[in-house]
Amino acid sequence: MKSILIAEDEAAIREFITLNLTHSGYCVVEAENGKEAVELFEKDKENIDIVLLDYMMPLMNGIDACKRIRELSPGVGVIFLTAKTQESDKIYGLYSGADDYITKPFSVTELLARIEAVYRRVKLNKELLNTHSDEMVCGDYILSTKKRAVITGNQRIELSQIEFQILEYFFSQPDTTISREEILERVWGGGYFGDDKVVDVNIRRLRLKVEKDPSCPEHLITVWGKGYKWVAEN
């Protein structure tokens, strides 16, 4: 059964979400704050597919909870539920490790669609781990499908499931320009109707991890007006 952890300090909202997700076939675990969410996730991280985090919560906010959960499990799907609408808040949430965000107020239809989209990516990522060979080599970089990490030299870099899928896509087509729309279709799926800037944010996050100088990337290159490409050799 699909399993989701919901961390929301407003009881009425939490109960509303739980009711609708339960009716849609999810097994729901509830937390009243970020600290409780991390504790519950740590106890049952092998069985939880998605974590839905409110942005502002007592004891531990959603940003800090997301970072801790990402340390515990890079492959889990994370969605922010937030009343914040400023662009900087959304980008900061994605930089902290979230896969997507839903802005309050929201409809049940949007909530279920966004959660289902993230669940499909989590499921696809698990299938990729089971079907790929252990490693993909691209220049000086090795993508370990079992460890969900990229290795260069003696450095091992942990990846979130979104980062892993993006890098796997680039490694499968080195030195090939891939458009933002193609990345969105491949990683987020055709039914995704969130902000397409999520691609750019994740590209920047990947550069921070894999480039020696993220402000002057050597491998994950922008092809202006067309998209991005991975340059295997320099």
Produce a short descriptive summary.
With 234 residues, the chain is α/β, with parallel strands linked by helices. The chain has helices spanning 11-23, 34-44, 62-72, 87-95, 108-131, 161-172, 180-188, 197-210; strands at residues 2-7, 26-31, 50-54, 77-82, 100-103, 135-138, 141-144, 149-152, 155-158, 220-223, 227-230. Helix 2 packs parallel to helix 3 (62-72) and helix 6 packs across helix 8.
**SSE class:** alpha/beta
Poorly predicted runs: none
Q: Approximately how much beta-strand content do the residues carry?
A: 15-25%
- First-last Cα distance: 46 Å
Order of helices and strands: EHEHEHEHEHEEEEHHHEE
For the largest beta-sheet, the strand count, sense and barrel status come to: 5 strands, parallel
Describe the structure.
Helix 2 runs parallel beside helix 3 and helix 6 packs across helix 8. The chain is of the alpha/beta class and 234 residues long. It is built from eight helices and eleven strands. Strands 2-1-3-4-5 form a five-stranded parallel beta sheet, sandwiched between helices. The chain has a four-stranded antiparallel beta sheet with strand order 6-7-8-9, covered by helices on one side. It has a two-stranded antiparallel sheet with strand order 10-11. The model has no long low-confidence stretch (mean pLDDT 86). Helix 1 links the parallel strand 1 and strand 2. It is globular, with a radius of gyration of 18 Å.
